[in-house]
Amino acid sequence: MKNIVILISGSGSNMAAIVKTAKREDWVARLGARVVTVISNRADAPGLQVAREIGLPTDVVDHKVYASREAFEAELAQRIARFDSAEYPALVVLAGFMRILTPGFVAQYAGRLVNIHPSLLPAFAGLNTHQRAIDAGCKLAGATVHRVTADLDHGEILAQAAVPVLPGDTAETLAARVLTQEHLIYPAAIASLLLKI
Hints:
alpha/beta, Rossmann fold, seven-stranded mixed beta sheet, 7 helices
């Protein structure tokens, strides 16, 4: 069995899309995988309540109470370790997890750490992707599922989806259109990855 640990910081909409797809497509039987927990770095993340309503256990590792990124990540790794063993390896899925991870943490989960980014990478790594796409005059924007590496938003691309940038778009309207595609490609990319690990 492959255990999926989802890390969030906010609303958890991608987390919910992954869990709903996993249940609908019965990932346990088809992929030997299951979502086992949702962990947030923010106790007030609305996605925690969404996860509880779905029936998932949740946990919080508040990054603000640790003296360093390394100390925070050491505790986060301990919480993940409950679901990570040779017999039941964990896939760690970042779903709106708004923390930049250190190279040491990334190396610990090399090949098993994935993220979704709201741009067509390699364009617009980092923040404010939708406004940057509009300001650049892009005709297309989108989302990318990628493996996480020590270089921010530069890991192997696993899936992408594009949407048009429409006249009059704001960062908010474009973000909403991109998000609908994120909810489709992220679960599909995770399923494909699970077949390989």
